[in-house]
Amino acid sequence: MIYSAGIIPFRRNNNGEIEFFVGHPGGEMWKNRNYWAFLKGGVEEGETWQDTALREFTEESGVSLSSISKNNLIALGTVQQNKHKIVIAFGAYLPDIDPNECHSNMADNGENLEIDRYAWFNFDTLKNITHPTHIGFYEQIIDLLK
Q: What is the pLDDT of residues 19-46, one digit of tens each?
């Protein structure tokens, strides 16, 4: 089984709506698909899930999270995304991320960026363009902020 861990940054916009920071996968397979997801990646040997989530977020966004400790992450649990992958998610209040200043590392093939675009979306938009197994993570954050 593959384990993948990531961070879901959230904020409130000027209208008071909760928004989530997500990325669009790079490469030919995703070029014409309106699919967005929180930044995550594979857990490496010896890493905690929190360590993986912090590392992957920085690799895939270029945003330093040096001011965030593992204790600042909100554990949202796990889901089985498919028959081969378990996804672990953490929430973090990170309202100042500018999608226009983000940049991703290269995918394993060395030809494409792992993430080619970034955006903040409210839940009503995001629930229609993200992986269905991830929706519960976003709902948990909304419930925490009520």
A: 999 999 999 999 999 999 999 999 999 9
Q: How many degrees, rounded to 5, is the angle at CA 36 between CA 78 and CA 10?
A: 65
Q: Please state the separation of Cα 128 from the chain's center in Å.
A: 16
**How many whole angstroms separate alpha carbon 46 and alpha carbon 89?**
18
Q: Residue 129 CB: number of other CB atoms within 10 A?
A: 15
pLDDT in tens, 80-97: 999 999 999 999 999 999
Distances (CA, A) of 81 to 2, 78, 84, 130, 131: 10, 9, 8, 12, 8
Please enumerate in sequence order all residues whose Cβ is within 8 A of that of 2, keeping only pairs 6 or more positions apart, or say none.
Answer: 42, 84, 85, 86
How far apart, in whole angstroms, are the C-alpha atoms of residue 54 and residue 43? 11
The token duo for 83 is 């028959």
Name the residue with tokens 């879901």: 8
Tell me what percent of the residues of the chain surpass a pLDDT of 90: 90
- Please enumerate in sequence order all residues whose Cβ is within 8 A of that of 102, keeping only pairs 6 or more positions apart, or say none: 23, 61, 62, 63, 115, 118
